[in-house]
Specification:
Layout (H helix, E strand, L loop, with lengths): L3 H37 L24 E2 L6 E2 L7 H4 L12
């Protein structure tokens, strides 16, 4: 029976082999994908993937609260600003439509 240290050495070697195999398979898959994209004239845009980050696609939310003293607004999302965080009743700050 193998010792613990021998088994750990085998695990380390298998991890190295697995990572090499993974990199080779990824390289093969990327080459195949590129080949198919060239063959059919497919672009990244055709795949529905945008180069812009998802943060730039966020919708702007209209403000929900306004501080009458300063005119500053808050959408009601995220950490509340100090002027409304201390308020017991937020209804007084609601922007009426």
């Amino acid at each position: 029976m193998a010792t613990y240290q021998e088994l750990q050495a085998q695990i380390a070697e298998l991890k190295i082999q697995a990572e090499k195999a993974r990199k080779q398979e990824i390289a093969s898959a990327v080459a195949q994908i590129k080949s198919l994209m060239e063959e059919y004239g497919i672009t990244i845009k055709d795949l529905g993937k945008s180069s812009k980050s998802s943060a730039s696609k966020r919708e702007t939310v209209p403000p929900k609260y306004r501080d009458p003293a300063t005119g500053k607004t808050w959408t009601g999302r995220g950490k509340p600003p100090k002027w409304i965080a201390d308020a017991k009743n937020r209804e007084q700050y609601l922007i009426k439509k």
